[in-house]
Write a structure and sequence with these properties.
about 40% helix; alpha+beta; about 15% strand; 7 helices; binds zinc ion
Length: about 210
């Protein structure tokens, strides 16, 4: 089995796993993996729960469709993130409920919209900026993501959902799941007195677990 075939199978498997566990509904969300010679991305209108590995789209780094079904209309979000982050090998974009809820709230600091509640969140996500709302398909959204992507491997699109990169597809999936879990905690704790990790604890984590 060659590397591209393996990557196609992995995308279909991880898509089904996310769908089955409620991280994606309907035909929402898309996954991608950077391989030699291009990017594999879930096709437009496809459900993450029912991906056919052979039909997964392949595009070049400029977004030109090379093989498989036509790519997701949100593929430009992935391309913007890959362009700014050479180390990114996988990207997950979800419309998962708790993170979307956070994306609809008013935030004091839009540069970082989730509190550092746990060490795993700090290690897997770090800071999460809110990217302003644009209607689906608006290319200005790609530019807005591009602006944040050099500094951040995870961003939250306002009234929409997260885009999360990893050094592998599995790392991107784990990071996205951690983000959704923390969004859920933040909603559970909303209005309650909480003690997030302080700057010293975050600095200690960054020292012991450099990204
Ligand atoms: Zn979306």
């Amino acid at each position: 089995m060659n590397d591209e075939t393996k990557a196609r199978d992995l995308l279909a498997d991880r898509g089904r796993s996310l769908y089955d566990r409620g991280y994606a509904h309907g035909s929402s969300g898309n996954l991608s993996a950077r391989i030699d010679g291009g990017i594999l991305i879930t096709p437009t209108g496809s459900s993450l729960g029912r991906l056919d590995p052979a039909k997964i789209s392949k595009v070049d780094e400029s977004g030109k469709h090379v093989a498989g079904d036509p790519p997701s209309k949100e593929s430009f979000l992935h391309l913007a993130m890959y362009a700014e982050r050479p180390s990114a090998k996988g990207i997950v974009h979800l419309h998962c409920t708790c993170a979307v809820a956070v994306s609809c709230m008013v935030h004091k600091d839009e540069r970082n919209v989730l509190p550092p509640l746990t060490a795993y969140y700090v290690m897997r996500v770090g800071k999460l900026p809110l990217v302003p709302y644009y209607r689906p398909g608006d290319r200005a959204l790609a530019e807005a993501v591009r602006k944040e992507a050099k500094q951040h491997h995870a961003v939250l699109l306002a009234n929409h959902g997260p885009v999360v990169a990893g050094k592998s597809l599995d790392e991107a999936v784990d990071n996205a799941e951690e983000l959704e879990a923390t969004a859920k905690l933040a909603l559970l704790l909303d209005g309650k007195q909480t003690a997030p990790l302080d700057a010293a604890k975050i600095a200690d984590l960054e020292k012991h677990f450099p990204s």
